[in-house]
Design brief:
Elements (H helix, E strand, L loop, with lengths): L3 H20 L13 E13 L2 E13 L4 E11 L4 E15 L2 E18 L4 E17 L2 E14 L8 E12 L1
Antiparallel strand pairs: 1-2, 1-8, 2-3, 3-4, 4-5, 5-6, 6-7, 7-8
Length: 176
């Protein structure tokens, strides 16, 4: 019989494997967005986790339904000395070109999913990531970005009444 901690690690491994498979999928640039698939990742920090501020890695995929709307997965990983946390969500994004800046885009996003924290008492909860970002197109096939996400959740890993309900994060990344 698996312990809750072993089950949590199994789920973390499955999410990481899914992110790697997604990264190996065919990629397309922003120039021909409708029907295109784009992938990317970023690194930064995630504040107010159950163990304080954590180093964060994000991986995302975007399937463009139209020139300005995409759907896809977001995988968020966070690490401290005592914490490993993984969140997976489905995200909807709206891409708004910046007026007067043809290579820059503002990206609004929101989604729903689950998060698992492996710290003290493990816990799994809902996850609602909402965010805004700025993306700058380097060339037809590559962009750099900065994304601010606020994660709403209800993780409880044994800190009593100090449940984590809001985790802001900032990442800087690249998209292909």
């Amino acid at each position: 019989m698996c312990t809750q901690r072993q089950q949590g690690r199994f789920h973390v491994r499955r999410v990481i494997l899914a992110a790697l498979v997604l990264a190996a999928a065919p990629m397309a640039g922003a120039a021909e967005r409708s029907g295109a698939l784009s992938v990317g990742g970023g690194l930064g920090f995630l504040a107010d986790t159950t163990d304080g501020t954590a180093f964060a890695l994000n991986f995302q995929g975007d399937y463009f339904m139209s020139e300005n709307v995409s759907l896809g997965p977001l995988v968020q990983l966070a690490f401290t000395g005592d914490l490993s946390q993984v969140g997976a969500s489905g995200q909807a994004k709206y891409w708004l070109p910046m007026p007067g800046r043809p290579l820059a885009t503002i990206v609004f996003q929101g989604g729903v999913g689950f998060v698992h924290a492996d710290h003290r008492d493990d816990d799994t909860s809902f996850l609602v990531p909402l965010g805004i970002g700025v993306e700058y197109e380097l060339n037809r096939d590559m962009s750099v970005n900065a994304t601010f996400l606020v994660n709403f959740t209800d993780l409880d890993t044994g800190r009593g009444g100090d449940d984590t309900t809001l985790m802001p994060g900032l990442t800087f990344g690249i998209r292909f």
